[in-house]
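Methods, example record. To illustrate the input and output format used throughout this study, we show the complete record for Cellulose synthase catalytic subunit [UDP-forming]. The sequence lines were provided to the predictor; the line carrying structure tokens was produced by it.
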Amino acid sequence: MKSAPSAPLQQPAPRPAPAILRLLPVRILGWIAVLATLPALIIAPMSFEQQIALSVGIFLAALVTNRFRGRFASLVLIFLSVVVSSRYTYWRVTETMYMDNPVDLVLGVGLLMAELYAFVVLLLGYVQTAWPLERKPVPLPDDPAEWPTVDLFIPTYNESLSVVRSTVLAAQLIDWPRDKLKIFVLDDGRREEFRVFCEEVGVTHVTRDNNRHAKAGNINAALKHTTGEFVAIFDCDHIPTRSFMQIAMGWFGRDPKLGMVQLPHYFFSADPFERNLDTFGTVPNEGELFYGLIQDGNDLWNATFFCGSCAVLRRTIVEEVGGIAVETVTEDAHTALKMHRLGYTTAYLALPQAAGLATESLSGHVGQRIRWARGMAQIFRIDNPLFGRGLHWAQRLCYVNAMLHFLYGLPRLIYLTAPLAYLYFGASVIHASASMIFAFALPHILHANLTNSRIQGRFRYLLWNEVYEAVLAWYIFRPTLVALINPKLGSFNVTAKGGLIQEEYFDSSIAKASLVLLALNFVGVCLGLWRLSWVDPQNIATVWLNLAWTVYNMMILGACVAAANESRQLRSSHRVELSLPATLYFADGRSLRCNTFDFSSGGLGVELPQDMKLDPETPVDIALYRNDLESRFAATVRFSGGKRLGLRFAPMSFAQERALVQCTTARADIWAARWGNHPRVPIHRVLGHIISISGTGFRDMFSHYYRATAARLRPAKAKEST
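The corresponding predicted structure is encoded as:
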């Protein structure tokens, strides 16, 4: 490297200090004044009129602030939200818990605990997401001879070869020196067809004689028999792009203490919520907030979690922490925690460089979340980040928030049933008038939603988290409680991928909790309407308040029921919407320029420039392009209608399969173009969408009840006729 030229000897003329520095003392004094008066503002008792005036003033200030761009405006919104929510929480604790009735007291304490939990999670969420780092890739050395050696692990247990083969073939196409990249398929299923496939394509098939510690044990066993300086890990359905290594590896050369670089998990297939609610591509899914914002926010505090796939780890540091953690079923996050405790760093690059399959069924999705929740509760019990050595305060808060998140089961159930205490029994869980509850609670809710909408807008729409949590609440509550009591209970379960759903059906088993809650809330509405006919005039507002809360809960639960109506998934290979230039070649020598509109490993959908009718099974060739390189694939016509054509690929050689992967899923531009591109949607449109979906849920529920009743009556009628 050439040394930088020396500076000139003469000193430049002094320049006036920037305006921001001249104003710095004023800003410091301003913040001191604000922080000094803040406690008084939070705890000051006020009449209803005073509280309304204060709330309206602060909310108008928030609306004006929200019109400005930039992170400073976001920080102001966070500050205002914290002030309003702190005032509400202080009021709830000090002025609404004077109850003589033991039943009221017990139910009231339960609701207060749920609200305190939500308040803590809100504050910790602001810490995590206030200032995403937005780390950019770092270039590698110009000479590839200086690049490190990498062992690429693809763990698999019971997944089919059709799911794994695209990942293996894509891994072979990664832009990295061939002598510095070794690919290992870690087959804990010990299957002969996998061994044969690995031999044919030229990768190493690794097995062991036991399945101890599941995925973590599988990786640890492979670490003992490999030697690469770094280890890249991909779930067997996560197909890497060609640029993955060059994007991920640069930071390792800059920071010798960097133990892990994590990239997003992007899914090209719809998860059960997206498929059953028909929201794929239009509503951010459950994981986008984590990979789009939270991990990026964690990166600011050196608290990025390892997520088990789409990551690269430095071997020496992994070995120093004892390998992949085996004490919990969330081995990935626990491994990152161990790295951070020893003073090592982790990094996150919010650039999707791989894509995989989402879970097919809602029951499988629930099972996956149960494992995550159990594992986080286990870490909370046996290696609590609040205690122990090695972490700074921000890392502790980021880890604690991740673990507290999975304790939402009981608080969510409380929120879904709290108004029923009054509607059923007349129990006052909040000892205050409806007007005072309105004056304190509404500003807290509005500010939290306004602030989170600004921060999370591209990655999570308002109210959708309540639908996700309501579906999972009952199933998450039980394993987390058990793990907190005895962290050794429970086992690792593999998330099924690549399965089929032969027929549309209503998953009454998963929907059972939502149906019970929905029935309880429906009875509550009936009782509330009955109370309106005789309740004292001074309590009418309280009845209406609880009725509104219950109707809102019914809307959320209706959407939960709709999510349990499983849609069919008959394709053996998932189709992905994709527009690429292509050329269609016919047997008579003609060719036609066209574009794809979707693709899969089994075929292509083609958009023609003009109407054309082709007979089924007509042989054609379809050419796809990567830069200026053309790759041709033999195919037959599956359907032909108007300007659209469906093609089925003929059997391919491994070289052709690699070429197809290279032209489609292994291209870096496909997933990056779709990442974080959801438009911000106003609350009224989100609310209307959820109401519509909730109506569908009620229809599904009654339809299922009608079919079930008809099925029970059919044998009885047949018996009567005989």
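Annotations derived from this record:
The first strand starts at residue 150 and ends at 156.
The chain has a mean pLDDT of 88.
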